Amino acid sequence: MPRLRYIEESEKTPHARELIESAKRTGAPDPRVVSLMTRSPLRIAWVEYWNKLLYQGVLPHKLKEMCRIKISVAHPMRLLLDGTLERRKGRRADREHDQRPVRSQRQHALQCA
Question: Where are the domains of the chain?
Answer without folding.
Answer: 9-55, 61-112
